[in-house]
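thread: overnight batch results

M.L. [08:02]
morning all. the overnight job finished for the chain we discussed friday. pasting input first so we're all looking at the same thing
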Amino acid sequence: MEQPHPSAGPEAPLAELRDQIDAVDKQVMDLLARRLELVAEVGELKGQHGLPIYAPERERTMIAARRTEAERRGLPPDLIEDVLRRCMREAYAHEKNLGFTRQSPDLGPIVIVGGAGQMGQLFGRMLRLSGYEVRELDRDDWDNSQQLFDGVGMVLVSVPIHDTVSVIHQLPPLPADCLLVDLTSTKLAPMEAMLQVHEGPVLGLHPMFAPDVDNLAKQVIAYVPGRHPDASTWLLEQIRLWGARLHEVSAQDHDHAMGLIQAQRHFSTFAYGLHLIREDRSLDELLALSSPIYRLELIMIGRLFAQDPELYADIILSSPDHLELLDRYHERFAEALEILRAGDREAFIARFREIGAWFGPSAERFMAESRTLLAHADAQR
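M.L. [08:03]
and the structure it wrote out:
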């Protein structure tokens, strides 16, 4: 019996529709390419006129307008927002190499101590894109340090946490108007050391991101004013041009917050990883049985162990206050465990509500934000 030709079966109209979809996809790619061309023109104008690459009000207004337009046209607003935000991330990455207005035209050379490290390289690249002369000093360069520091306008210390204070004390005498800055994730000890060794302007910075970011748009950099804050205004403005958000904080408040944000979180992840290997379950099985939220948790746990263990040891052990904080965390974990041992359902619910009240309206906002993260994690399966 003669078999029907595939083009005569149900696949024929499906193939035609797929061809039309392919054609639309090509049109979308053409439009995206044109959008990037326009982004490049915008980036050049921003660089010429000293405008930051990240304009939050413009972004909010544009997203709101596109969502309204999507609803009017019967399109899912969340879909349109997702597409646009992905386009904007690419736009920020595209703009990062286009150059920035130099905020301190008369500044002398900048020396980055630890310039070969990842964070030092990132700041070196951004400073060069902004028109500054950047010199690097690393472990093997101290014999030539006097030449490197000749006429220096800023010294940026970007070395491992456990080396920061000792490196600061090794610095040669700096010009009185030289700005001394550090990038360490602790602030009390480095700030004290910089104020001791240098009588001129001092500023503490802490980039709240890893050095492998595509660009600085929307990234947060904490800053601690030291001596002569007016002398560091140009640097803060330069960082804003790069698209970063700045948050002023005292050294003491910074280090206490980092105990919660970094030391406790990283130690909890370390302990969770230790617990997982001692339970001796197959990671593949856990992933196969994971809900989107647990898969995302495993991703964040695994992410830690793909990185430098020395860095995280330094972060957790950088302050004796961290141990006291972790002791308090241990006590509260034990307190919560006692509620379970007692089978006290009402006490658990009461504590749950108490914590929910502390989060307040942010809990609902976090719920909405997490849906996007979970959808993205699920789509990567």
